[in-house]
Amino acid sequence: MVKNIIKPALVLAAVAFCSSLLLSFVRGVTYPLILQQESDKEQSALMLVLPGFEISEPLVVELENGENFKYWTGEKFINGEAVQGYAFISVNRGYSGDIRSMVGVDENNIVLGISIVQQSETPGLGDRVNERSTSETIWGVILGRSYGGEKITDPWFQDQFKGIDLNKKIKIVKHGTWISDMREDLLRENAVTSITGATITTKAITGSLKEGLIKLRKAKMVTEGGDK
Amino acid sequence: MNLFNEFKKGLWERNPILVLSLGMCPALAVTTSISNALWMTLATTFVLMGSNILVSLIKGFIPSHVRIPVYITIVATYVTIVELSLHAFQPAVYKALGIFIPLIVVNCMILGRAEEFASKNGVRASAADALGMGLGFGLTLTVLAFFRELLGANTIFGYTFIQGMEPSSAMILAPGAFITLGLMLWGMNVINSRKKG
After folding, report:
1. In chain B, which end has fewer C-beta atoms inside a 10 angstrom radius, N or C?
2. What angle, 0 to 180 degrees and rounded to 10, lies between the N-to-C axes of helices B34-58 and B67-89?
3. Of chain B residues 126-155, which have a CB less than 8 A from chain A?
4. B92 touches chain A (CB under 8 A)
5. Cα–Cα nearest to B43, from B122, B141, B118
6. Structural domain count of chain B
7. How far apart are CA A162 and CA B101, in angstroms?
8. Domain extents for chain A?
9. Tens digits of per-residue pLDDT, A108-162?
């Protein structure tokens, strides 16, 4: 009886011990590298959303609700005039898990670019936020012939946010997969086209942009107030 | 023991998805595109191989009524190691696999093979079994993904299939997965009954 309980318990404990030991070792080796990857990812996202800007070190501001808000300020010269740009990370709950996106805006709250840093949306639906669109057909690829299709290297869903005015309401329309011909029509209405079957994901992202902008305003007030 | 037979049985006769009905969760969830299916196959086969070999090696030391928790610990440890190492050393692959890596833990095919096969057979047979099962799993997933990607997104490997055709998003959603899987089962049964008849 005692043997029947003690031996299995010891074996199980030994297996759990070995596994924990192994995992803590693997984590010890990989953790610094993973941190490095994450910061690299943040840097490349920053370059993407504030293209051509001289980007300063991030500022961390504590908001009224105790939340720490991190944002970057960038400066660029257009025709000899200094233009400011801001970048921040906005988070919102998507269909499954948080969606974190790096957002770049100019002084007038026009989006310069967004880049989704982290998401765990449904494969084939919500995760198409990272889809790179191409109108190249499979036949063209097999036969080595191009039918003049354009190759888009930036994910189309994120690309269409360029030029969206965050002061106004962002409309969500259903025009299917975005192509660059749509840009003008959509921008006139301040609209983005949603991903088919993943309206929740689209709404989560447009919602997070607004929310992030409000936080950015508050944070700017805090820092500028502190400077004076 | 005929190693080739252990390998071969996973492809058709004991196909993990179509016959054993194991690993249905990833089969339905990630078959929205062929590349997802292939990545999933690669990751799953790797973990299955590792867990089958390890379970077969230590099967003599494990008291039978704690074997299931031990197997789960082994599989979960394996998956975590794979996830951490990919994240650190192969960020591009990690990004492509994303959510599929943690999903491998809940793939009952791996636990099922540990319990049903590796705990009763030698190391080489277990490795052959893992390879065959992994390949059978992968073939089924790829065929499923081929139809779903073609009809649901009008693409193959991310390239447009027919320009201007409006795809049916039902095929990308869960019903499309169930319908396609049902048709595949039907097709398999037709072939099997013809063979017998």
Report:
1. C
2. 130
3. 148, 152-153, 155
4. no
5. B141
6. 1
7. 33
8. 1-46, 50-224
9. 889 999 999 888 887 778 888 888 766 677 777 777 665 555 555 678 888 889 8
Q: What is the pLDDT along chain B (197 residues), one digit of tens a residue?
A: 588 888 888 888 888 888 888 888 888 888 888 988 888 898 899 999 999 999 999 988 888 888 999 999 999 999 999 889 888 888 877 876 777 788 888 888 999 999 999 999 999 999 999 999 999 999 999 999 999 999 988 888 878 888 777 788 788 888 999 999 999 999 999 999 998 87
- Chain B residue with CA closest to A117: the answer is B95
Tokens linked to A134: 């191409």
Pick B66's closest partner by Cβ from A12, A37, A125.
A12
Three-state DSSP at B12 gives: coil
Q: Which of A220, A214, A186 is nearest to A92 (CA)?
A: A214
Q: End-to-end alpha-carbon separation of chain B, Å? A: 30
Dist. CA A69–CA A63, nearest whole Å: 7
Q: At what angle do helices B174-196 and B123-153 cross, to 10 degrees?
A: 120
- Number of C-beta neighbours around residue A203 at 10 A: 16
B69, B80, B161 ranked by CB distance to A138: nearest? B161
Domain that holds residue B28: 3-196
Inter-chain contact B88–A27, Cβ cutoff 8 Å?
Answer: no
